[in-house]
Every structure is written in C-alpha cells, then in structure tokens.
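We modelled the chain as a single entity of 336 amino acids. Its sequence is:
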Amino acid sequence: MKLKSKLFDFLTILIIVFCMLLLLLKPNIMAEGIAEGLLICGNVLIPSLFPFTVLSVFLLECGVVEKYINKPLIFSVFVFILSVIGGYPIGAKITASAYERKIISNDSAERLLNVCINAGPAFIITVCGKVIFGSTKLGILLFLAHILGSITLFLLNSKRLSKMEFTANHKISHNPSEAFVSSVATASASLINICSYVILFSGIIKFVHNNTISGFLEISNAVLNIKNVYLISFLLGFSGACIILQVISIGKAFINKPLKLLLYRVLHGSLSVVFLKLLLMLFPIELQTISNNIKFDFKRVTENTLGGLFLIFFAVMFIYSLDNKKYCGKFINDIW
C-alpha cells in the first residue's frame, strides 16, 4: 500500500512539474484555451444553468418536494426530468441538495445520480445539430437518441429506485425570501465550481491536437471540430472527464462506487449510438458530414506528450481512488 501511495505521489509530482515547465515555455496556448473557456462560461453555461439551478434548489428549500413529491419513484422521475431539461450537471446538483437536506439516503442518492446525468436539449439540438451539421432535424434525433439511452438506464433501475430510502424529514424554510437567498447562494457556489472545471479543461485541450481525445476530456469545445455524428452521440452520453469530475466533486459525500458511475457513462454513450442508428434508419437524413463508420483514432495521443500524460494522470487518480474504497471482493456487488 505504501509503495502504491509513493508511486502515485511520484507520478503526480512528475506530471505537475512537467506541466509547469510546459506552461512556462508555451504560455500563449494555455492562455488562449482559458479565454475560450471563459467565453463558453459567459455565453453558454451561466445564462442557461444559473437560473435553472436557482429554481431547482428553490423547490427543495421551500419544501415542495416534501409536500407533493413524497414517493421514491415520483421523486426519481422529478429529478430525472429536471436533469433532462437543465443538462449536466443539474441532476447531480439536485441529487446532492436532496441528500444534504436528508430527503434521500446515501445509497439512494448514488443510485439516482447514475441515471440523471444528461446533456441539455439546447446544446444538443442547437450546437451539435444546427451548428455542426447544419440540420435541426439531426439535432432533434441526436437529442432523442440521448434521452432514449438515459430512459433505458432509468427503467432498468426503476425497481431499485422505487425501493430507495426516502425520508423527506428535512427542515424546510417557511420564509420564501430566506429560501430564495439560500438558493441563489447555493447556485452561485455550484456555478463557480462548474465553470472552474470548464475553464481548466479548455486550457488543457488546447495542447491536445486530437478531437476524439479532446471529446473524452471536455465535450463542449471538442464537438465543434468532430464531424462523426455517432462519435458525438457517444460523447454526449459519456459526458467527458470534465463533467465526470464535476459530478464526483458535487456528490463526494455519497459516491462510494466511482467505477459504477463510469460504467453508466459508457453504457449511456453506447445506448445513444444504438438508438441514433435506429432513428436514422427510420428518419434518414442525407448529409455528407454524417459518417456511418465509427472510428476512434487514438494515434495522435502518442504524438502529444501533454495529452498522454494527462490521460495517464487521470487514470492513475481513478485507480488510486478505487484502491482506497472498501469492497467485498465480488465484482458485481462492488460496482452495483
């Protein structure tokens, strides 16, 4: 155990030192990425996520959930719908807020979180459909495939979600003004956290000259340069390392099985590709930009040192976090 810890520390220090040297040698590249990240936050994330986050938290603060949404499965559907409308990581934020207010238990929060990570309709239809492929219809099909994949995962877990521990015994604010102030403060802290990740990853992917690799790191920047509709569909379901780390940060109090979270992201992406293929067979769209061959080209990662080191670093961090969790030794039980 000590050897693993020392190895992890050594790799961490090595990568950090290398990154610092690279930033000193090529500061303009990182600065350009940071600037683009700020624009994404100012033009896309904050306008769309902030008001929705305030309203979502306000519903919990005012006790609407306790009064009217007092059944486990109904509450799960409520959070799922909000995650679909608001986009990621709204589902994670609402789940974390419900857990903090003792509406749901630790295990129930983790179970619900795994099926409530979705991209928003505006991003998929407008950016991925209309901007990238010049087709709103294709954007709608992408959104439908994405949601059908998420609904499939939700239905597969509906029996467990209906039996989850639902307490609804938290203290609610009887003063609407206090609830509103608290909601704004909570939403502001959440947006700062989200934007910090986006800005950092926007700088990182400037050093990665492969669109596929960039998509696995941070999706909002990468999809603009990807022309494979099936790859985009997969990445929307997978969500990318940036979103996954945000979700883990938001749900750090109740996430005990990060491997399960990652597995659900892969399943969501895969299901989205399958549903998109079926939808395009039913509603064919003639676009030269659509490729029927899904090609995941990872050659360029070996040609870019920083990109490779970041991937190794995230992999080591993930494995190290798994190693420090308590498991029973049975694979299915440990991830489920």
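As a brief sanity check on the tokenised model: The radius of gyration is 20 Å. Residues 27-61 form the longest helix (35 residues).
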